[in-house]
Amino acid sequence: MTDTILLAGATGMLGSRIAHHLLALPKARVRMLVRGSVSKTEVLKPLVDSGAELIEGDLNDAASLDRATRGVDVIVSSVQGGPEVILDGQVALAKAGKANGVRRMLPSDYALDLFKATPGEHAMFDMRAQADAQIAEIGLEQVNILQGAFMDMFLPGHGAIDADAGTISFFGDGELPIEVTSVEDTARMIARVALDRDVKPGKFAFAGERISFRQAGEIVARITDRPIRPMSMGSETDLRAAMANASSEKKVMLAYLLYMTNGQTALTDLQNDRYPDLRFERFADFIARSLPIAAHA
User: Which keywords appear in this protein's UniProt record, sorted alphabetically (predicted)?
Assistant: First the structure.
């Protein structure tokens, strides 16, 4: 049985890889909702050449959402942005889908377990949880993909590791294991779940590996043959104090660190073994593969 999948956010880092993996599956017809201003971009050309259909539209244009969702079985969202995108836009897309008989939606969650977060502590988690709740009220079935953090956060220049200073920074003692997954494996799993009619609605969690900040630093040091010194920036109390005085943008980044420090949003009931042919990339392999790219970024 072939399903038509509508993908929103296909020009993004994750979205383009989801499209790639969907197109590699024989039971998927892929339709991509894209703004007219980006419909001719290079990132879309290989996807269209591989058989994807383009529908020009916008999340705030009801007519285009109606057009895009006709004949669709599953909506996959990988959009990023503020409330107008994550909340208003996704809910509008879900309403159009429900009206046109879409079976289910995979909202743009893709994180640690945002449903365990304390309301008001993490703006991005709050938005996603609110969107998911409103989609549920519409009556559209949803599967909430949770893969932890992306492994990219441990690449030099992407946050935790300062290659020039030779440090990896964290709050707390840096010993708590965190669920991490590569973008590629996340996209591969999303594509499989989107076509799997037997996946139950609700949380669908998986992870490439569980690894602590200290372990990540040791692996990067071994692969680069350069020392990486663990450096604690303070306790959870210090982190919460920094959040209280931070700008809105900075507070979001600190909120991610908060949940990586206290483990409140850790993933449980991982479904790594659902598709036996899928093998997740280990962190050491990801670092060895990605460091040459990071060095020239």
Answer: NADP, Oxidoreductase
